[in-house]
């Protein structure tokens, strides 16, 4: 994972003499990867009339889009949109034209560094690579393209590819943009206006805080979705899945705190500091705080019920799962900082068993994992500095979502994943 910077990785800073793109010249956009997220993004941007090229290395997806266009179903989708799709940038280079101002990286995390290296020669000197990946990929892409040519875009919505070129947007939501170094950057304002076509987009100077909150969600939801093989709505109806999710997120929050990250609410609404279990909640069943947290997850499951793990989709296509960039990243950083992460370790191992084909995704896997990890959580102690001791109200925006069964004492409001 990660690795030291090599000569190959050394970023080439833009030469000072390179002219800015003229203000009246529209940006050229490259979408790299036409799976769930890349397909929906490309379709929306094309519909808005942007200059978009879509790159996919998957010939079945390329053929389907060339023939039938990007076909998008679900929340506010643009329907069917036709546009340029290429399998390599060599054909673009031969056709001439300006380099790309924004390269929207929409591959899974295990492929993103290779993809970035391949497209780097086609990035305008003052252009930017944009990371859509869950996990902490800006650090990796910054080593390839340079920190000042790398932007993070947290995707706070879901999408799946049902068949090549056919996309389902599985939830509403938008983006949070930021730079790994926290710097402000006028390109984020331009990019924010462009991405508004897909969903509400905000800019943060605390990308790390927002990334770690989203990482906590993915370590729970994407990994449990892979293990159990079902959509979020079904997952969250099971008390033992919710408990696993809470334990996973608690460990991630502990590692984030030990890393001195100030957690941000995801898309301004979901407060991971509140969700993390207190030491008392971890040890004793049935407290008011614990019940409220179950209620919140029920509400999240109800609102985002169609979300499906992109890691599961990648495994189904025979790809390496992103688990080392999610739970694996937390485990290795936790080990460096002395924060135990036994539940994330068990989850990571189970995802790897499923990816190897030795077990099929099934709800029974989650139940077995819950039984196996109960003793682990009772015996593992998170260092005091990383433990949540307060009990506060959930700071979430009110959209009046109703919990799906009687487990919750009230209906905690929620508006984003
Ligand atoms: N799906 C979701 O709901 C969400 C996803 N994300 C993040 O967005 C990113 C994309 O997710 P998603 O669209 O679901 O992933 P998918 O696996 O559906 O799509 C990724 C696509 O990228 C292709 N690809 C791989 N390498 C390259 C390359 N070098 N050049 C061009 N294309 C390449 C893959 O090809 P092949 O088909 O051959 O594997 C695949 O089609 C992920 O990193 C994920 O973390 C974030 C939030 C939500
Ligand atoms: C949409 C969500 C949260 C679903 O698990 C996701 O981000 C992913 O799987 O990549």
Automatic annotation (TrEMBL):
<dbReference type="Pfam" id="PF08546">
    <property type="entry name" value="ApbA_C"/>
</dbReference>
<dbReference type="InterPro" id="IPR013332">
    <property type="entry name" value="KPR_N"/>
</dbReference>
<dbReference type="InterPro" id="IPR013752">
    <property type="entry name" value="KPA_reductase"/>
</dbReference>
<dbReference type="GO" id="GO:0005737">
    <property type="term" value="C:cytoplasm"/>
</dbReference>
<keyword id="KW-0560">Oxidoreductase</keyword>
<feature type="region of interest" description="Disordered">
    <location>
        <begin position="391"/>
        <end position="417"/>
    </location>
</feature>
<dbReference type="Pfam" id="PF02558">
    <property type="entry name" value="ApbA"/>
</dbReference>
<comment type="similarity">
    <text>Belongs to the ketopantoate reductase family.</text>
</comment>
<dbReference type="GO" id="GO:0015940">
    <property type="term" value="P:pantothenate biosynthetic process"/>
</dbReference>
<feature type="region of interest" description="Disordered">
    <location>
        <begin position="1"/>
        <end position="26"/>
    </location>
</feature>
<dbReference type="InterPro" id="IPR008927">
    <property type="entry name" value="6-PGluconate_DH-like_C_sf"/>
</dbReference>
<dbReference type="InterPro" id="IPR051402">
    <property type="entry name" value="KPR-Related"/>
</dbReference>
<feature type="domain" description="Ketopantoate reductase C-terminal">
    <location>
        <begin position="206"/>
        <end position="348"/>
    </location>
</feature>
<comment type="pathway">
    <text>Cofactor biosynthesis; (R)-pantothenate biosynthesis; (R)-pantoate from 3-methyl-2-oxobutanoate: step 2/2.</text>
</comment>
<dbReference type="InterPro" id="IPR003710">
    <property type="entry name" value="ApbA"/>
</dbReference>
<feature type="domain" description="Ketopantoate reductase N-terminal">
    <location>
        <begin position="30"/>
        <end position="181"/>
    </location>
</feature>
<protein>
    <recommendedName>
        <fullName>2-dehydropantoate 2-reductase</fullName>
        <ecNumber>1.1.1.169</ecNumber>
    </recommendedName>
</protein>
<dbReference type="GO" id="GO:0008677">
    <property type="term" value="F:2-dehydropantoate 2-reductase activity"/>
</dbReference>
<dbReference type="InterPro" id="IPR036291">
    <property type="entry name" value="NAD(P)-bd_dom_sf"/>
</dbReference>
<dbReference type="InterPro" id="IPR013328">
    <property type="entry name" value="6PGD_dom2"/>
</dbReference>
<keyword id="KW-0521">NADP</keyword>
């Amino acid at each position: 994972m990660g690795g030291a910077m090599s000569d190959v990785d050394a970023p080439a800073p833009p030469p000072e003499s390179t002219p800015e793109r003229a203000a009246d010249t529209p940006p050229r956009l490259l979408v790299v990867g036409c799976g769930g997220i890349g397909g929906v993004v490309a379709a929306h941007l094309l519909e808005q009339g942007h200059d978009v090229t879509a790159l996919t290395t998957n010939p079945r997806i390329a053929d389907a889009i060339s023939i039938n266009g990007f076909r998008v179903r679900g929340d506010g989708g643009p329907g069917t949109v036709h546009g340029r799709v290429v399998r390599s940038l060599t054909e673009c280079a031969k056709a001439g034209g300006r380099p790309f101002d924004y390269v929207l990286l929409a591959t899974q995390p295990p492929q993103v560094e290779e993809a970035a290296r391949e497209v780097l020669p086609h990035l305008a000197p003052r252009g930017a690579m944009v990371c859509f990946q869950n996990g902490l990929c800006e650090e990796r892409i910054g080593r390839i393209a340079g920190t000042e040519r790398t932007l993070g875009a947290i995707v706070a919505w879901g999408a799946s590819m049902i068949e090549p070129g056919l996309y389902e947007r599985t939830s509403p939501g938008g983006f949070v943009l930021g730079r790994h170094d926290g710097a402000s950057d006028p390109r984020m304002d331009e990019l924010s206006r462009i991405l508004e076509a897909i969903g509400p987009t905000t800019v943060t100077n605390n990308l790390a805080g927002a990334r770690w909150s989203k990482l906590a969600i993915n370590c729970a939801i994407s990994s449990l979705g892979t293990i159990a093989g079902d959509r979020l709505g079904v997952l969250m109806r099971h008390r033992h899945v919710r408990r696993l999710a809470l334990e996973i997120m608690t460990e991630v929050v502990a590692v984030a705190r030990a890393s001195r990250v100030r957690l941000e609410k995801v898309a301004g609404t979901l407060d991971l500091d509140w969700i993390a279990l207190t030491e008392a909640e971890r040890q004793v069943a049935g407290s008011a705080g614990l019940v409220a947290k179950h209620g919140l997850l029920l509400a999240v499951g109800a609102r985002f019920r169609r979300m499906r793990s992109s890691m599961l989709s990648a495994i189904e296509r025979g790809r390496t799962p992103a688990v080392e960039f999610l739970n694996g990243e937390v485990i290795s950083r936790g080990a460096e900082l002395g924060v135990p992460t036994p539940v994330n370790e068990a989850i990571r191992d189970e995802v790897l068993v499923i990816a190897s084909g030795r077990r099929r995704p099934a709800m029974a896997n989650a139940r077995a994992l819950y039984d196996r990890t109960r003793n682990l959580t009772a015996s593992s102690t998170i260092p005091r500095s990383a433990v949540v001791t307060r009990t506060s109200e959930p700071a979430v925006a009110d959209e009046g979502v109703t919990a799906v069964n009687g487990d919750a004492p009230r209906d905690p409001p929620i508006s984003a994943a």
